[in-house]
Write a structure and sequence with these properties.
Largest sheet: 5 strands, mixed
Distance between the termini: 25 Å
Helix content: 25-40%
Shape: globular
Number of strands: 8
Structural class: alpha+beta
Strand order of the largest sheet: 1-2-3-8-7
Number of helices: 3
Length: 199
């Protein structure tokens, strides 16, 4: 399975419409499975909310690092596989942040540091593709007043040092995405060389 990662340097908002199928093709003429990343604010309008548990709530932030994945390798698209791939991405991020000396917790598809919420994530399916949106607060601003949040630029390691700044955040997130692609491609290759039971 081939997966293309493209980072968009231009900042633009996430409003929930980017989770729609074929967004990468319509906006950037990217065909096939892809991962698009960028920075920008988030304010999901009500008609674009995909999680029924979130209906009636605010999902917003002044600036986040966004990752949108779309996969076409499974036909028809499978929601269970979409959520498993969502968790894989989150676990890779969790592992790499832990290696930098950051103490963090995961509850389902949410990442917390010192009890403060760092991320949002959703998986969904269309007839032809599986999609995942994973986003991390850059700073703790513009988030819902009823949720304690934290931004990437506020994270400290176990020695009290600030972990991220403008100079290293893209490199770190690109490493996360690269490792995620490697895992998915390795799984695909492992399937192609595995002898089926009973044969």
């Amino acid at each position: 399975m081939s997966i293309l990662h493209k980072h968009i340097n231009e900042k633009f908002p996430y409003d929930g419409s980017q989770i729609d199928p074929l967004w990468a093709f319509r906006e950037f003429n990217i065909k096939g499975s892809s991962i698009i990343s960028w920075r920008g604010p988030m304010n999901i309008i009500p008609e674009n909310i995909k999680d029924f548990a979130d209906i009636g709530t605010e999902i917003k932030s002044d600036e986040m690092f966004h990752i949108i994945s779309e996969f076409f390798d499974c036909q028809p698209a499978n929601m269970n596989i979409a959520y498993l791939r969502q968790r894989l991405l989150i676990l890779i991020f969790y592992e790499k942040l832990s290696k930098l000396g950051v103490l963090l917790n995961r509850k389902g598809d949410d990442i917390y540091i010192d009890g403060r919420k760092l991320s949002v994530c959703i998986a969904s399916c269309s007839i032809s593709s599986m999609k995942i949106h994973f986003a991390l607060n850059i700073r703790d601003s513009g988030t819902p007043v009823d949720v304690e949040t934290i931004g990437l630029f506020e994270i400290k390691d176990n020695e009290g040092n600030i972990v991220f700044d403008e100079d290293n955040i893209l490199e770190f997130m690109s490493d996360v995405i690269g490792s995620y692609i490697d895992e998915l491609e390795t799984i695909h290759l492992d399937i192609t060389k595995t002898k089926l039971l009973g044969f």
